[in-house]
Design goal:
Order of helices and strands: HEEEEEEEEHEEH
CATH class: Mainly Beta
Number of domains: 1
Shape: globular
Number of strands: 10
Strand order of the largest sheet: 1-2-3-4-5-8-7-6-9-10
Low-confidence stretches: 1-19
Radius of gyration: 15 Å
Distance between the termini: 33 Å
Mean pLDDT: 88
CATH architecture: Sandwich
CATH topology: Immunoglobulin-like
Helix content: 10-25%
């Protein structure tokens, strides 16, 4: 996902993901940042592999809220469900993080982990998330060009 096509895909993904009002804060290199209504800001991207029509698109978001309850919470949506009781492993550069899962979702496990993930993203070119899925393993890759800028834009727009 590069250039204008990548930006359009990220923007369309974010627009389709919610019916609430939103404002584009930043778009570039496959990542975008949005300020959504109710004091929520997100940096978003879709996985490198584009979903077939009618299928769920794997995507990730870092969320920030004005009330400070979310300061970089990572939320990943897989194209299909993770096996019940299983965890997902996020690898960013040489760092690995164990994520909580439910259905086709995975989340970071708290503020310390979220800050470590964001720090790793600043030094890496890609991240990959793996989980045992229903019907086979899941592995999604995300390119990180533009991710730090999108994350910073979302954090700044929703700073308490």
């Amino acid at each position: 996902m590069h250039g204008r096509a990548g930006l359009a895909a990220v923007a369309l993904l974010a627009l389709a993901s919610t019916a609430s009002a939103q404002r584009l804060l930043h778009a570039g290199a496959g990542w975008a940042a949005f300020e959504r209504s109710a004091g929520l800001c997100e940096a978003v991207a879709r996985s490198e592999l584009q979903a077939l029509p009618g299928r769920v698109q794997a995507r990730t978001a870092f969320a920030f809220t004005r009330d400070g309850r979310r300061r970089g919470e990572l939320h990943i949506i897989f194209a299909r469900p993770v096996r019940a009781g299983a965890a997902a492993v996020l690898t960013v550069g040489s760092s690995s993080f164990l994520l909580a899962t439910s259905g086709n979702n995975a989340w970071s496990r708290g503020p310390a982990q979220e800050q470590a993930i964001i720090a790793a993203i600043r030094a890496a070119g890609e991240m990959r998330v793996r989980a045992p899925g229903v019907g086979g393993s899941i592995s999604d890759r995300y390119l990180l060009g533009g991710a730090p800028t999108a994350i910073d834009a979302a954090a700044l727009a929703c700073a308490p």
